[in-house]
Amino acid sequence: MEQTSFERFDQLGLKQEILDAIKDLGFETPTPIQLKTIPHILTSDKDIVALAQTGTGKTAAFGLPILNKIDMHLQSIQALVLSPTRELGMQIAKDIENYSKNMKGLKVVSVYGGAAIYNQIKELEKKPQIVVGTPGRMLDLIKRKKLNINNIKWVVLDEADEMLSMGFKEDMNSILAETPAERSTFLFSATMPREIEQIAKNYMQNAEYISAGQRNVGAKTVKHYYYVVSAKDRYSALKRIADINPDIYGIVFCRTRMETKEVADSLMTDGYNADALHGDLSQAQRDHVMQRFRNGNLQILVATDVAARGLDVNDLTHVINYNLPDELEAYIHRSGRTGRAGKEGISITIIHSRETHKIKELEKKIGKSFEHKQVPGGKEICTKQLFHMVDKVKNVEVNTEEIKPFLPEVYEKFEGLTREELIQHFVSAEFSRFLDYYKNARDLNFIKPDSGSDRKSRTRDRGERSESSSFGRGERAERSERSERSPRKESADFTRFYINLGKNNNITPGALMGIVNKYTKLNDAQFGGIDIMKKFTFFDFDSRYKSELIKALHGNVVDDVTVVLEQTKMDTGGFEKSSKSDDSPKKRASRSSNRGDYRERSDRGFSGGGNFRGNDRKKSTRRKSM
Q1: Could you tell me which residues come within 8 angstroms of residue 544 by beta carbon, excluding any fewer than 6 positions away?
Q2: CB count in 10 Å sphere of residue 562
Q3: Cβ distance 112 to 134 under 8 Å?
Q4: Are the C-beta atoms of 273 and 299 separated by less than 8 Å?
Q5: Which residue has the higher pLDDT, 477 or 435?
Q6: Residue 356, SS3?
Q7: pTM of the entire structure?
Q8: SS3 call for 523
């Protein structure tokens, strides 16, 4: 496709009522994907496969030309837009409504799961021209014969790769199979996995491939940093990253719901202006958290990949990967949430020493270099926070009239203090506890031990006061400190256990270790091999503590599941024929191939202890006075 030379929306051939609407929205210059897509849709009926990163204006890229071509006299659904999440679908519908505000009679309806289907059916009875929704709910409505797609002219698959990763492949195929053969299909995706190409092959005819970037690459406006720490220091590193960036407004991505809850709870306990977004929230709770975050009343949102899909925020300064995603392609979507609308953003990844090879894989995948950064020390953080506070006070807008009645008494109270003394009192009052917290803060950066050296050398100056116990997070802080100081046992006698949690419960080796850490006080216990199935897991654990482990976990409730924990009938590496298992011996072979010592098992590793309070004012990490 030839590169267009158009530079303004009024050069693209759009109707005046649409131009007036987007002008009111502040749209002036089309983005690259809009420049390439809008003229094509306006002048052709050919299918499109468009590659564009999140936040590049894809809704306008397909929405504006569809609105331009829609038949206002035809009272039937003419355009179908599929999106991976309820939130993104609602956002697309809202954007299209804004673009069409001058088009009298244009109706847009959004349909999605988690809401009463009866109300959505009533909206469809009003004969909209455009329907936006999630694949599952759309297919349900089609089967109920409430969503008539016989006159569809355009089908849009937005964030198609996300829909595939969320398991909507069959629903998408079923919907496309039901639509008229003569329709035009516009597929938008940030990455191009093979499944996308298969959909294009099966349901699109001679599609035009349009790209506003290279395949599977990160956005040019995003810088990529990574920090290397011991697994147990992951949470402390996260806090320092937040503290060195006082104006942070970002998302912290975690792998599992459990990890998301724990990180968010720890941040809130430590006074950070944070909250969680995960699958256990009701829709009302989810909407409340997302609204607070969009409004800037939350600085840090801790979320899983699935929960954050559809969260459309343009001003994020940071994306932080508390853990790398299992599928490295998901990193592109995570990092693409910052650096949007032409602004610069930062994507940060916290890894431990065994994950450095993944950084190299990511560099190859996204075509960008990652910069290895040092976890900031206490002095560096205190300096940054101090001058941030000073700048904030210096630049505050003074409302003389409002404060005038109080000034005489204030002047009287400060009488006798020189300018220098007043500044010293101010700094001490606002900053002394912050300085005290980071006094003697240890180095969190992972230092590779010399060949043949004792493994305990990985922790520098263990006599220093640990961040994890600075402000007495109680038992958890004490456990973290004791665990760090415990000498490692080079070998252990293992007992094999069965637990009724598996991949379906988002169990990973780190998650399992986190559960054990949460419910036990076994500071020097060791893990052996871990074998995770769909519905259950076998794992080897230190035989000295088998009774304590069963007592602590069996019957407890983890993520709404009552835990069944049993010792297997055979030693580690053998086959267990418990009635709890629905797996065959053949599937359970090779138990002892991964007998590594998971000593760094505190992946949840929340050493806690910070005491920096984020207030309710927008984007402030300043500690509240206590």
Answers
A1: 492, 493, 525
A2: 10
A3: yes
A4: yes
A5: 435
A6: helix
A7: 0.54
A8: coil
How far, in Å, CA of 4 to CA of 19, rounded? 19
Nearest to 347 by CA among 315, 319, 313: 319
Tell which residue, 84, 89, 96, has the closest CA to residue 159.
Answer: 84
**Max Cα–Cα distance, the chain, nearest Å:** 86
C-alpha atoms less than 13 angstroms from C-alpha of 359 in its C-beta half-sphere: 21
**96 CB-near residues (< 8 Å, 6+ apart):** 59, 63, 67, 108, 130, 132
What is d(CA 458, CA 448) in angstroms, rounded to the nearest whole number? Answer: 7
For residue 346, the number of C-alpha atoms closer than 13 Å in the C-beta half-sphere is 16
Determine the straight-line distance between the first and last CA of the chain, rounded to whole angstroms: 63
Q: What does the alpha-carbon distance between residue 315 and residue 178 come to, in Å, rounded to a whole number?
A: 39
Q: Tens digit of pLDDT for each residue in 331-360?
A: 887 888 888 766 789 999 999 888 888 898
- Residue 565's pLDDT band, with cuts at 50, 70 and 90, is very high
The residues, ordered by sequence, that sit 6+ positions from 214 with a Cβ below 8 Å of its Cβ are 367
- Each domain of the chain, given as residue ranges in start order, spans 9-211, 220-483+611-626, 494-594
CB 187 within 8 A of CB 210: no
Query: Which amino acid makes up residue 250?
Result: G
Q: Is the pLDDT of residue 189 over 90?
A: no
Q: What is the DSSP letter of 387?
A: H
274 and 300 Cβ atoms separated by less than 8 Å: yes
**151's tokens:** 């006159």
Class for the domain spanning 9-211: alpha beta
- CATH fold of 494-594: Alpha-Beta Plaits (3.30.70)
Residue with structure tokens 């098992």?
601
CB 466 within 8 A of CB 458: no
* More confident position, 362 or 616: 362
Strand spans (E) along 436-591: 494-499, 527-532, 537-542, 557-558, 561-562, 565-567
C-alpha 207: how far from chain center? 32
Distance CA 91, CA 110 (A): 9
User: Counting Cβ atoms within 10 Å, is residue 333 exposed (0-12), middle (13-18) or buried (19+)?
Assistant: buried
Give the separation between CA 131 and CA 82, rounded to whole angstroms. Answer: 9
Q: Do domains 9-211 and 220-483+611-626 have the same CATH topology?
A: yes
Of the candidates 573, 566, 574, which has an alpha carbon nearest to the alpha carbon of residue 536?
566
Tallying the residues shown for the chain, one arrives at: 626
- One CATH from 3.40.50.150, 3.40.50.300, 3.30.1240.10, 3.30.460.10 for 220-483+611-626: 3.40.50.300
